[in-house]
Design brief:
This protein is of the alpha/beta class. The chain is built from 13 helices and twelve strands. The chain has two domains: 95 residues, no CATH class; 297 residues, Alkaline Phosphatase, subunit A, CATH 3.40.720. It is globular.
Length: 465
């Protein structure tokens, strides 16, 4: 949680010159923060802070007078909207490390259906209906072929900017989505696990405490971001606004009057939020050709917009669901590839558009595609795959040494499996450690804090900064 603010801080801004007139406000949902616009159409929720609602208290009063604004500021600061260490005047400069974008495929996607091990003789035996036909695969090397729905990923791989890593797994196997995501996102395997997430500890270690340093797209704070460092959470850039109905300009002008008064951390928190709104407003409505009209496509479009705007983005998270395919997974040979083929096409098109949209900024961006675990090697009786262990992750970027498959393939012979699953040969923490140390600019101390117990070995899929 961020720092609490003493009520004496609020007294410092009582002479800020706010109008005593009342402005009608509409109370927002419990999780809300910067919400509706000048019209009366409710906008999606945007939450700032670590893991608590913020600024909803500002809309809780009967009207906008001096007392309600100050009370709302106190509640927002106490709730941890922005650390009390945040300055009132924000500087958005070039970042000393890459913008790290973490795309989490929720539900446990099957890496062997995206990059199929067509050269393993046991592959077709384990998946007589679901194995990708070699004749339609997009070749990676003698062992692997890309799903034909993943054209953009294949192209990125051929350009040497995409590194698949096989056999990635958690050191603590589980078939529970909840337990696996908890372990993956906390990256804490001690008897008394840490309550903070690995991305939060990374952001804290590199001093990423500006408003746009850590952003979660999708409306929820992921487990990986919970903790002390401030995060900004939004459903979309276009929905990012202040929670005042019908009196937006009047409200903003009144609160901005605080910048001319002596003020404490509570006022700074509010002004930091308003600075965020000011910076986002010119970005709204921007459209780029090539993104699919899906939640993933829209989220990556917003991330690219933030990166290109040079707002100091260091960490961004995006969640993509729908990967828990126990039934009707398909093999991409027909019916548009089945459930997996349709998801793979969305993933590939979205990432391809993201790279093109970033342009030169792709050289300072690293994308990590991860999931909580893989799927069973053998198909089930419903044309799908049940929960497994080892999986394939993707790391892409302008400074990634791609074009080859990393990790040692464990093999699919029954004797090489881990209780029927692809064996885990690469600790997921070692992948993340290489990303944040070599591309994110994290020191050894920060890597140790963010990823305790991570192996020291590195696969070498990144260029050092």
């Amino acid at each position: 949680m961020t720092d609490m603010v003493d009520m004496t801080d609020i007294a410092e801004i009582t002479d800020a010159g706010l109008n005593d007139d009342l402005v009608d406000l509409t109370p927002e949902p419990a999780e809300g923060t910067f919400l509706p616009r000048d019209d009366d159409t409710p906008a999606p929720v945007v939450t700032a802070g670590s893991d608590v609602p913020a600024l909803s208290a500002i809309a809780a009063g009967n009207g906008l007078d001096r007392r309600n604004v100050l009370g709302g500021l106190a509640a927002a600061a106490a709730a941890g909207l922005v650390s009390s260490a945040l300055p009132g005047r924000l500087a958005f400069a070039g970042t000393p490390g890459d913008s790290i974008v973490v795309l989490f495929l929720r539900g446990a996607y099957d890496g062997m259906s995206l990059l199929a091990p067509i050269g393993d003789p046991h592959y077709k035996k384990a998946r007589p209906r679901l194995a990708l036909p070699a004749s339609i695969g997009l070749p990676a090397d003698r062992m692997f072929a890309w799903n034909p729905q993943a054209v953009q990923l294949h192209n990125l791989f051929q350009r040497g900017q995409l590194a698949p890593i096989v056999g990635v797994a958690s050191p603590a196997a589980t078939r529970s989505h909840f337990e696996a995501m908890e372990r993956m996102e906390s990256c804490s395997y001690a008897a008394s696990p840490q309550r903070s997430g690995w991305l939060d500890r990374y952001a804290e270690g590199i001093g990423a405490r500006q408003v746009f340093s850590s952003v979660a797209l999708g409306g929820l704070v992921p487990r990986s971001m919970t903790g002390a460092a401030p995060e900004l959470t939004m459903r979309s850039l276009d929905a990012f606004d202040v929670s005042v109905v019908g009196q937006r300009k009047r409200f903003l002008n009144a609160v901005r009057g605080l910048q001319h008064a002596s003020r404490g951390p509570a006022a700074n928190a509010m002004l930091a939020g308003l600075a965020a709104v000011d910076r986002v407003d010119p970005l709204k409505g921007r459209r780029s050709v090539g993104y699919p009209d899906t939640s993933l496509g829209r989220a990556l479009h917003d991330v690219a917009t933030l990166v290109r705007a040079n707002l100091g983005l260091r960490v961004a998270t995006v969640d993509a669901g729908g990967w828990d395919m126990h039934v009707g997974l398909g093999n991409s040979a027909g019916n548009n590839g089945g459930s997996f083929g349709r998801q793979a096409a969305d993933l590939s098109l979205s990432i391809g558009a993201f790279v093109k949209d970033l342009g030169a900024a792709w050289q300072r961006t690293t994308l990590v595609v991860m999931s909580e675990f893989g799927r069973r090697v053998a198909e089930n009786g419903s044309g799908g795959l049940d929960h497994g262990h080892g999986n394939m992750w993707l790391v892409a970027g302008g400074r990634i040494r791609g074009g080859k498959v990393y990790g040692r393939w464990p093999g699919l012979a029954p004797s090489r499996l881990d209780d029927g699953d692809l064996a885990g040969r690469v600790d997921h923490r070692s992948v993340l450690a290489e990303v944040i140390s070599r591309r994110g600019g994290a020191s050894a101390r920060t890597v140790g804090a963010a990823l305790p117990g991570a192996p020291s070995t590195r696969l070498g899929f990144t260029d050092p900064r």
